[in-house]
Amino acid sequence: DGVTVTALRDLAVRLATAAGTLVREGRPERVEVAATKSSDVDPVTVMDRASEELLREMIAAERPDDAILGEEGDDVAGTSGLTWVLDPIDGTVNYLYGVASWAVSVAVVAGPPEPASWTVLAGCVHSIADGRTWSAGLGEGATRDGAPIRSGAPASLSTSLLGTGFGYDAVRRSEQAQVLAQVLPRVRDIRRLGSAAIDLCLLADGSLDLYYERGLNPWDMAAGVVVATEAGAVVTGLRGRPAGNAMTVAGPRDLVPELVTILEAADADGAGDTAGD
Ligand code: IPD
């Protein structure tokens, strides 16, 4: 329908900010878990649902022909070829405990809404507790609170601050701990901040040097990927594959191959698993 990347990005920012305001203002003193998902430690709160409902209503009003893929609701089919990929609260465990790292992540992609085949046109990650807002449009660069950002250029892996995250499944976590044992001795230090969307944005503005995670869902990563790549970072998977559920690695072009080699040797994507991903 001739919509521009700039207009999509502006809408992503409006959506993420509106949902962020709802979540911030509605956070009760004690957050109750409404349900659990993939495992007992994977929470959904009333606010996850309310935030996603608001996003869906706004998209239906402004872009009724677009499809929607959201973490907490049913997929909505569209006719425009564009899909909004929504994480109403990324970092739900932080939200639950009041640790200040949770975000609304909104992206719009062309093509099938899977990391292997999509083109992320625009995205916004709005950090709810402190209001920081990262956004990017394809070919337009990335900003934090309106100011252009560039990803960092650390001299070596050993002087790099690396972000990562863990899934909710116990078996997966013990595998991730083994991979961590290979990576931790080789870097400056590791941060597990609790929101993949924010991690990718911190990578984009140079607050983290490198990032990797296994098991990301499309909504955890869509907005963060366009912010990171537009800020100059490389985002990839292992074994020549694109970033996705099996593995997402992000960082500077000259250091990512070294991290990829370590992760492949540690079978960090479980490519050796017979069960697959
Ligand atoms: C989670 C966060 C976390 C990451 C997990 C995600 P959620 O998303 O992004 O940092 O390590 O893989 O599932 O459950 O808070 O929306």
Which short descriptors sum up this protein?
277 residues; alpha+beta; Fructose-1,6-Bisphosphatase, Chain A, domain 1; D-Maltodextrin-Binding Protein, domain 2; 5-stranded mixed sheet; 7 helices; 33% helix; 24% strand; binds D-MYO-inositol-1-phosphate
Tell me about this structure.
With about 280 residues, the protein is α+β, with helices and mostly antiparallel strands. The chain folds into 2 domains: about 5-150, 2-Layer Sandwich (Fructose-1,6-Bisphosphatase, Chain A, domain 1); about 155-265, 3-Layer(aba) Sandwich (D-Maltodextrin-Binding Protein, domain 2). The chain has 7 helices and 14 strands. It has helices spanning about 5-25, 45-60, 90-95, 170-185, 195-205, 220-230, 255-265; strands at about 35, 45, 65-70, 80-90, 105-110, 120-125, 135, 140-145, 145-150, 160-165, 190, 210-215, 235, 250. The strands form 3 sheets. A 7-stranded mixed beta sheet has the order 3-4-5-6-7-8-9, sandwiched between helices. A hairpin with an 8-residue loop joins strand 5 (about 105-110) and strand 6. Helix 1 packs antiparallel against helix 2. The radius of gyration is 18 Å and the shape is globular. The N and C termini lie far apart (about 35 Å). The model has no long low-confidence stretch (mean pLDDT about 95). Bound molecules: D-MYO-inositol-1-phosphate.
What is the structure about, briefly put?
The protein has 277 residues and is α+β, with helices and mostly antiparallel strands. It contains seven helices and 14 strands. The strands form three sheets. Strands 3-4-5-6-7-8-9 form a seven-stranded mixed sheet, sandwiched between helices. Strands 11-10-12-14-13 form a five-stranded mixed sheet, with helices on both faces. It has a two-stranded antiparallel sheet with strand order 1-2.
